[in-house]
Amino acid sequence: MSTQNPVFIPGPTNIPDRLRYAMNAQTRDHRAPDFVETLLPILEDTKDVFGTKDGTIITFPSSGTGGWEAAITNTLSPGDAVLVARYGMFSHRWIDMCERHGLDVRVIDCSWGAGAPADKFEEALKSDSLGSIKAVLVTHNETATGVRSDIGAIRRAMDAADHDAMLFIDCVSSLGSMPFEMDAWGVDIAISGSQKGFMLYTGMAILAASPKALAAMDAAELPRTFFDFRDMMGANAKGGYPYTPPLQLIYGLRESLDMIAEEGLQNVYDRHTRLADGVRSAVAAWGLELVAESPDLYSDTVSAIYVPVGFDANELINHAFDSYGVSFGAGLGQMDGKAFRIGHLGMLTDVMVLSGLATIEMAMADLDYPITLGAGVAAAQEHFRKSSTTSLAKAA
After folding, report:
1. What pLDDT is recorded for position 2?
2. CB under 8 Å, gap of 24 or more: what pairs does 164-167 form?
């Protein structure tokens, strides 16, 4: 079977050849004097993607999960209270991590398909008269449900409560694909990874930490060794790592930043919105429903789609893979068997998205779903035709 088919999972994403070639590099001495000329400009240029001038970029050989562990262990102590909403698999996993580290985790449970509830955060913070809550944790883009939360609204809620808690944001599946404004939103630590918007292999956690978060290190008593910010920043300042770095990913990140800059961040965001709107047009034409409860919550990187009652989403995506060699995202947690996911982030074009929609349509038709073959593709084609014409007219 050919392995050239694109994947439509919400990450790791398809990797542009340009980035694969950049990562296919010979071993280099990471302790050589000239390595500083590679590393330091990367750390500085990554700030633009996070939307920060004041933040410090810190990377670790890890996935985003390691980035979250680094965020909490460098800033918190056993017994510290954190406030977090659970509205999907990934917000649930951060809760589990905090509980395992002995934190006092105060959970706001929401329906899967909802976003982070700014009003409930504000209420909880206002009632915390002793200032016990040290950090608010929010998943910007809940990959399991295709929901994007309003981080600006969370910051406004925290300000309205006049609370001094830090704000930590998981932006693993949003950064580099949807607008992220770390400084404007008052984010203290933003956590991402190499394998989604940056379009690289998995293996690098990429964080941005505010001065306030770095100041919290002095009092933090959770143990950390591999993920110690101080060790990493100290080595970075000299152009190195405290241990062996993921050289190939560093080369890839340099090239990825160049690609993003060449396209322009706003153009990257506009492209993702356009592709996402095409997918949503197809979903509507199929007569199916998104898991996200309202349009203001729709993610531009992943759409989670309910299958009709009586059908199994896992059977659908397995059939698409077995019959057509194309991968789609499985439903996670409460969505297991009830929904499938179409990832539309990273290196994707109109034509690639259309191929994914045509594939999942064929799989649904094979399994006797109540759809009209070609309806979703036609709806997306019409959207792309109109938006392409509009874009060309504006350019002219």
Report:
1. 59
2. 164/131, 165/83, 165/125, 165/133, 165/134, 165/135, 165/136, 166/75, 166/134, 166/135, 166/136, 166/212, 166/213, 166/216, 167/135, 167/136, 167/138
Give the CATH number of domain 18-261.
3.40.640.10
Strand order in the sheet with 329-330: 289-290, 302-306, 339-343, 329-330
The model's pLDDT over 26-48, given as tens digits with 9 standing for 90+, comes to: 988 888 888 889 999 999 999 99
Q: How far is CA 181 from CA 158, 211, 341, in A?
A: 16, 16, 26
Domain 264-395 fold is Aspartate Aminotransferase, domain 1 (3.90.1150)
pTM above 0.85, yes or no: yes
Q: Is 340 helix (H, G, I), strand (E, B) or coil?
A: strand
Predicted confidence at residue 391, as pLDDT, reads 46
Domain ranges for the chain = 18-261, 264-395
Assess contact for 257 and 46: CB atoms under 8 A: yes
pLDDT, residue 388, reads 74
Residue pair 302/341 in contact by the 8 Å Cβ criterion? yes
The DSSP code for 31 is: T
Q: What is the mean pLDDT of residues 180-185?
A: 98
Q: For residue 65, how far is the Cα from the chain centroid?
A: 12
Q: What contacts 237, CB < 8 A, 6 or more positions away?
A: none
Q: Is 30 helix (H, G, I), strand (E, B) or coil?
A: coil
% of the chain with per-residue pLDDT over 70: 97
Q: Are 213 and 58 in contact (CB under 8 A)?
A: no
Which residues lie closer than 8 Å to 94 by C-beta, 6 or more apart?
68, 84, 137, 139, 170
Which letter, b or e, does each residue of 110-128 get, where b requires 16 or more Cβ atoms within 10 Å of its Cβ?
bebbbbbbbeebbebbeeb
